[in-house]
Amino acid sequence: MSAPDRPAEEPIRDYDGLVAAIVARGDRLSRRHAEVAHFLLNHPEDVAVSSIVRLAARAGVTPATITRFAQEMGLGGFSDLQALFRERLLGPRLPFADRLAALRAAPVDEADLDDPGRLFEGLVAAAVGSLLRIEEGLDRAALGAAVEALVQAGAVHVAAARGAFGIGAYAVYGLARSGKRAHLVDNLGAMRAEQVAAMAPGDVLLALTFDDYTPETVEIARHAAAAGHAVLAVTDNPLSPVVPPARHVLYVKEARLGHFRSQVPALVLCQTLIASVARRLGRAETTPEAKRNVRSHEE
Fold it and tell me: Within this chain, do residues 173 and 277 fall inside the same structural domain, yes or no?
């Protein structure tokens, strides 16, 4: 007996539809096509303005692979794929497009990276571009839900390594200063499983990982979710391996310049979480009920 036909998939009409279609295909994508998908979602502005040859070279695949990926997604080819990214960049978002065009007016070439002055300018432009993207695209409802989860948590355990380690360490410091108990899951002695097992009921895991997707951080997130803890992920796109175990996800696309990745937008997002938690906890301490509890304790 032949296998039943799959239901016809809706044609992709815009960038959001493309993202949804990529996520829906999940494990059905080949390894190469998954690599293409990751690259496209992490570099949407570059896809909108670059040639297929340049994109293929940056993604480490052949132009034909990108074309086949577009066709697998139900598009005619690369031009149809690029049109989706151009519409996202130039469609109803002209103020952002104008600002991004100004940033790209004097792009930094690979050769310029040997000049500290030009390298500095390039890193500033990359950081500003990332900030513009996150300011426009961050899901405010998801941000509010993440703050609420942190406020309600008994303690926050932070998993971050390699390039994300500095941001994770700052998150522990900031949350602790805000009055929230915070711990770094540092995997010291390769005891990450034991550190996750030490989480108390009601504790939350904050996992930060980006396009290198540190295996230890991904494993920690999966273990914490399996143990029934809420996982809050800060990552780069819906294909990140920490998205499935996460209850709350915040996306940050960090621009790259050469081998350097701007950490500015992720740090700003973490500062927002920390400051929001601090204000919520501060307001809770000044409620009439809290004041009565303080007076009772003093008496």
Answer: yes
